[in-house]
């Protein structure tokens, strides 16, 4: 018995009815989404998109990190992206905890000191979102023709509100 047998079994069913072959990997709808790793977020379906339509980059909090910018630059220049949505969400642990709280909780779970581990918490989600939008729009390799928006996804209603 392997640790992943249930998932591999599900994958076999998925592959038996596979219909996504033949794509070339570009974002067919021209969309890139940067959002949180939160399991309540379904990035494609929340925007009426399907596999093949969008580039998706996820991390805790849906932040514009150096790696997110790498993805965006590749998306814009090589993968057909011309609209970018940055989408943090309500009730996000990264935006509702302090750095010390997360370190304490992880320390308790791990049974070892986690005080050295950064989690990059956000104390003002909309301000952080505005800063993240600016990181993208001011990037020298993101042309002004690319439209960038900052949004908050409500995990209780499914709605997305544009904030920036
Ligand atoms: Zn989150």
From TrEMBL:
Cofactor entry: Zn(2+)
Keywords: Metal-binding, Zinc
Keyword Mitochondrion appears in the UniProt entry: no
Leading EC class: lyase
Keyword Metal-binding carried by entry: yes
Catalyzed reaction equations: hydrogencarbonate + H(+) = CO2 + H2O
Xref: Pfam families: Pro_CA
Listed EC numbers: 4.2.1.1
Function as written in the Swiss-Prot or TrEMBL entry: Catalyzes the reversible hydration of carbon dioxide to form bicarbonate.
Family membership: Belongs to the beta-class carbonic anhydrase family.
Protein's UniProt name: carbonic anhydrase
Species of provenance: Nocardioides panacihumi
Organism phylogeny: Bacteria, Bacillati, Actinomycetota, Actinomycetes, Propionibacteriales
């Amino acid at each position: 018995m392997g640790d992943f047998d249930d998932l591999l079994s599900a994958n076999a069913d998925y592959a038996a009815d596979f219909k996504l072959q033949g794509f070339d990997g570009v974002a067919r709808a021209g969309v890139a989404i940067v959002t949180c790793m939160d399991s309540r977020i379904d990035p494609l379906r929340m925007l009426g998109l399907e596999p093949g339509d969008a580039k998706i980059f996820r991390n805790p909090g849906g932040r514009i990190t150096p790696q997110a910018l790498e993805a965006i630059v590749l998306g814009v220049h090589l993968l057909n992206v011309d609209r970018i949505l940055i989408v943090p969400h309500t009730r996000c642990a990264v935006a509702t905890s302090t750095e010390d709280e997360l370190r304490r909780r992880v320390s308790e779970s791990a049974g070892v000191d986690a005080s050295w581990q950064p989690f990059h918490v956000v104390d003002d989600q909309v301000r952080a979102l505005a800063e993240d939008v600016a990181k993208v729009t001011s990037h020298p390799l993101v042309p002004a023709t690319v439209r960038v928006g900052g949004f908050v996804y409500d995990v209780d209603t499914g709605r997305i509100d544009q904030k920036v």
